[in-house]
Amino acid sequence: MRRIYLDYNASTPIDPAVAAAMKPFLKDHYGNPSSAHWAAGTAATAVESARRQVAALLGCQNDEIVFTGGGSEANNLALKGVFFAYRDKGDHIITTQIEHPAIIEPCRFLEHLGAHVTYLPVDGTGRLDPDDLRRAITPRTILVSIMHANNEVGTIQPIEDCARIAHNHNVLFHTDAAQSVGKIPTRVNELGVDLLTVAGHKLYAPKGVGALFVRRGVTLEPLIHGAGHEGGRRAGTESALMAVGLGKACELAGDLTPMNRVRDLRDRFWQELQKRLGNRVSLNGHPVHRLPNTLNVSFVNRVGADILRKLNGIAASTGSACHSDRIELSPVLQAMGVAPEIGMGAVRFSLGRGTTDDEIQEAVVRLTDLFATAE
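-> structure tokens emitted (375 positions)
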């Protein structure tokens, strides 16, 4: 049975152009970028070239990019770095109930160290009301962290409005843009953010590399102490190999036109499911303010994990987890107030640049056949 990959929000394949850019650094250019001899030159130049590529995508200055070991590290650096650097000003952090664990768990950790964290609610589409943020800010608030787009349902948050509110109260603003970079515009000055997270393996670069945009003037306490790499914000010898991969991926991501085709495929997928399954399927997430590649649907009175097991080679993700004889909804669907009989059947299909029309048509047929067989 033909395998179909519809889990691009979980991880993307490495783009061939990215792999080609990285190849010389697997063998020939092995020098330490921080050394002062002939073997370091090419590596050092490559790291700074990659930094320029990431900065160009985000519309920022080169020295505002910090390379990290991935999106989770970038999120941890943003949250913990601000908390430890600004403790004399306050101890209050604001985030949302639907953040990725790479935000929720660091917040839980900081609570053990004296932080006060407010977890803002969202509506039934997964979208935050900026007025809730305005009411939550106190004189002790030092950071607001709100994801740009949700990894499960794809809902895009009103980041510009939220950042403006934070800045009106002299509060720093971070956004986890791991899912949005390369899919929708992520120019930091247009968004108005002070910190922004990039995850390489969400935009056709390798796993194990990411970046954090840190606006000039923002102070961070490093997570990793040592020599003064990355402008003193992350110690450890830079990997030219991984930086080159992320840089090339960001260069490719500057062209968002492929997302128009992906959006058309996504919409056709949903229309066909509605046509064939009717009220047995429902949409999770915002119908308009949503990533162009993400389709999270619930198969009513079914279990998402069961559906995936029977889909014969289709890779996708489920929004529910099975524990003995009970179904547990994801925290995102719970926060959205999705009813258990609907949420337990949630499946996320996330498309990518490599998704074809034939794959979508075949996925529709397999889903239709699955329900026909069940009846």
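The chain has a mean pLDDT of 94.
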